[in-house]
Amino acid sequence: MTRSHSALARRAARAAFLAALFALLGCGKNDGLSDNDRRMLNIQQAAESLKGKGAKIQERSYPQGNAWAVDASGMQVNEELLRELKSLGNISELNLSKSTLGDEHMALFNELGLGTLALKLDLSHTAITDAGFEKLDNLRLLSQLNLTGTKVTPAAVERFRTKRLKDERVWERFRRPTIKMK
To answer: Of 1, 7, 56, 124, which residue is most buried, by most CB within 10 angstroms?
Structure first.
């Protein structure tokens, strides 16, 4: 009986020690920030970094919530820039005109969902061709698309329109966006 009593006492002591340790250390990072505070800090850091590289960023308010209007025209596009854009969260307007955006970026652009909530997307005067354009199948709220000065053909735009009309993920009012090519 003494042996089982001491085993129980050791277990109880261990449990008390672990409980005290967790209480002292907390469950997450011990920086005093909530998860939401940490998320907002990451958004602020991404916005400042993008501004430092030359992007113009403005927060917009919509009935559904806030989103960003980002003008990254003329900028050097790479994986880092695309990931920083993603860190902003909701982007309602994205201008990448005259940037170095090319077909090689479009798979990641789509994978990150950069255009998912975009109402306006300006890809004018970039190196986008039909091959890159056809990777964009995640533009659910798109109402305006500018492809002026790209190598995207009218045939690719027609395929995009046809596919979009059948895409059940796209709300009816967004199935016929205005697409500028000239």
So the answer is: 124
